[in-house]
């Protein structure tokens, strides 16, 4: 007799929120949620070249991806939004 188990693969829903975009001051704030839980908050000040990061590590046992990669994506998106005068944006994907 053979016993078999199906392993369930759970995908996490990762969402990038950009609740604050100041086109004039070239500042963007991004919130990254994983399954609707706050994972990372990043404030990008393109005028002064400053990036501030707050991570909610307590609720996540393992990093889902390289945080530096997420931060670089947010910085690139901030540059894109400021350059193209986009004042609201949100993106969701599965990992």
Tell me about this structure.
The protein is an alpha+beta fold and 95 residues long. It has one domain. It has one helix and five strands. The protein has one helix at residues 67-83, and strands at 13-22, 27-34, 37-45, 50-55, 90-94. A five-stranded antiparallel beta sheet has the order 4-3-2-1-5, covered by helices on one side. Strand 3 (37-45) and strand 4 form a beta hairpin. The longest helix is centred in the C-terminal third of the chain and has 17 residues, at 67-83. 15% of the residues are buried.
Helix residue percentage: 10-25%
CA-CA gap between termini:
36 Å
Q: Count helical runs.
A: 1
Poorly predicted segments: 1-8
Summarize the structure.
By secondary structure, the chain is α+β, with helices and mostly antiparallel strands. It has one helix and five strands, in the order ββββαβ. It has one domain (13-87).
Q: What would the keywords be for this entry?
A:
95 residues; alpha+beta; five-stranded antiparallel beta sheet; 18% helix; disordered N terminus
Write the layout of secondary structure elements.
Elements: E1 13-22, E2 27-34, E3 37-45, E4 50-55, H1 67-83, E5 90-94
Antiparallel strand pairs: 1-2, 1-5, 2-3, 3-4
């Amino acid at each position: 007799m053979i016993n078999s188990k199906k392993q369930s693969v759970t995908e996490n829903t990762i969402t990038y929120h950009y609740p604050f975009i100041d086109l004039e001051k070239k500042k963007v704030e991004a919130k990254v949620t994983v399954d609707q839980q706050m994972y990372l908050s990043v404030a990008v000040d393109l005028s002064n070249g400053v990036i501030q990061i707050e991570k909610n590590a307590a609720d996540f046992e393992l990093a889902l991806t390289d945080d530096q990669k997420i931060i670089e994506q947010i910085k690139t998106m901030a540059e894109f939004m400021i350059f193209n005068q986009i004042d609201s944006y949100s993106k969701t994907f599965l990992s």
